[in-house]
Every structure is written in C-alpha cells, then in structure tokens.
Amino acid sequence: MGIGLGIIFKFKGTTGGSDIPAAIFLKRFGISPGKSIVVIDFFVIVLAGISFYLKGMPLDKSVVTLILYALLLLFAETYIIDIIIDGFDYARMALIVTDKSNEIATEISNKLSRGATAIKARGIYRNIDREIIMTVVTLKEVTVLNDIVKEIDPDAFMITNTIHEVKGHGFRRRI
C-alpha cells in the first residue's frame, strides 16, 4: 500500500482518501505526504478503537492486536511513501570549517563536479576568522567528500545534513 500511494503522490494523483488532506498539507505547509498520512490515519485508527469501546464491544485480545497491527502498518506505509517520493538518494549539504577552503573547494570541483560556496565566519570560542565551505552532494558522493576533506585538512570540522529539496544545476526535481 505504501508503494502504491508513493507512486500516486509522485505523479500527483489521489485515491480520494486521507491523501487529499496530505496533498493540501504538502502544498500549504511543506509537510511530507508520509508524515501527514500518519497523523490523519492515526486519528482514524484511534477513533475506530474509541467507537468500538463506546458501542460496548469488548476490546479483547484480537481487537487490540488488530489495532496494533494497523498502527505498525501505518508507520511502515508512511516511511515507504516518503522513500518512493524522495527516492533513496536524498541530497546532502555539507558545511566544512577549514583553513584550507581553496584546496578543498578545488578538489570538490575536480573529483565531484560540484560547486562550493565559501562563507566568511568567525569562531566564537577562539575568535578566529575562517571560511566555511558549503556544498551539496548526492548520498553516493558523501564518502568521496569525506575522503577529500580528511586528505586535505584532517583537522577540518564538517557537518552533513539531509536535504529534501534541491533546485538548480546538477539535481533533478523529485516531485
């Protein structure tokens, strides 16, 4: 079910269910369809459990087991939806604090064919002016980037974040 909904969302379709509010949340608030569906369907499952209770139906072991299975499948479904929409190759943004920004930026350009932006910064703790290199790479390129940084400046400080949307040269549109 998660694969099917992921494909439907990827090609801007709908099933007429909880994916309609999820599409609205994506457009208005930038919330991923998987996260929206988990919240909406979670409340549906909880309300179903409450209605069983209010109708006087016994909440025996089999009903509780079904509710737990529904919740488990719901979380798996939402994870799969986001993977189908975004793909397995999320982009990564790296911020590299180094004294050797020119050398690292040149190697990023040569080995990865990626651009890099130098940002002037000052370390608060030691009050030292430095440059931060910002670059965006694919998941497959992170290892090469790590090797480049380690080789040129083993003392560099590097932060890598998952990026869910990149617009510009070298990156395809995901949704």
UniProtKB/TrEMBL annotation:
Membrane topology: Multi-pass membrane protein
Subcellular location: Cell membrane
GO cellular component, one term: plasma membrane
Record domain DUF2179: where: 114-168
Positions of transmembrane segments: 36-54, 66-85
Chief localization: membrane
Protein's name in the database: DUF2179 domain-containing protein
Organism: bioreactor metagenome
Classification of source organism: unclassified sequences, metagenomes, ecological metagenomes
